[in-house]
Amino acid sequence: MNGPLSVVTIVAALVLAAWYLLRAALNRAPSRFDLLAAAVFSALVAVLVVIAVVGLFGDSRPSDTATFGGYLITTIAFVPVGAYLARLEPTRWGSLILGIACLVLPVLVLRLQQIASVTGA
After folding, report:
1. Are 91 and 30 in contact (CB under 8 A)?
2. Which label site among 58, 61, 102, 106 has the fewest CB atoms less than 10 Å from its CB?
3. Which residues are listed as membrane-spanning (predicted)?
């Protein structure tokens, strides 16, 4: 797992989570800007996942490749699904959905790092 890219992803997720949760607290529905920010963040997560998948074909693989693959699939799908659900819910709860999705992403990235670091991937 790429250390600096993981840190950027985690920081971006936490900043976006704070923004979305603030909007939910202010009773604001997700705006187009919020959904666009989620799409840009999803692209950043996709870059991280692609780099991790490329690393799977290298010399140092995680010992539990199936678990690592499951976390990769969950990581890449989490924010787009959250954005889709937020778009279906055009109230403050849509902002809350986006906020929770962005709060879960750092946990997924940290878990990917833990699995990869067991074998030095």
Report:
1. no
2. 58
3. 6-23, 35-56, 68-86, 93-112
pLDDT tens-digit series, residues 33-92: 999 999 999 999 999 999 888 888 877 777 788 888 899 999 999 999 999 999 998 899
For the structural domain made of 3-118, what CATH number should be given? 1.20.120
Instruction: Assess whether pLDDT exceeds 60 at residue 120.
Output: no
**Long-range contacts of range 107-112, CB-CB < 8 Å, 24 or more positions apart?**
108/71, 108/74, 108/75, 108/78, 109/6, 109/9, 109/10, 109/13, 109/48, 109/75, 110/10, 111/71, 112/1, 112/6, 112/52, 112/68, 112/71, 112/72, 112/75
Provide the residue ranges of all domains of the chain, joining segments of one domain with +. Answer: 3-118
Which residue is listed with tokens 């499951």?
Answer: 70
Long-range pairs for 85-88: beta carbons < 8 A, 24 or more residues apart? 86/30, 86/34, 86/35, 86/38, 87/30, 87/35
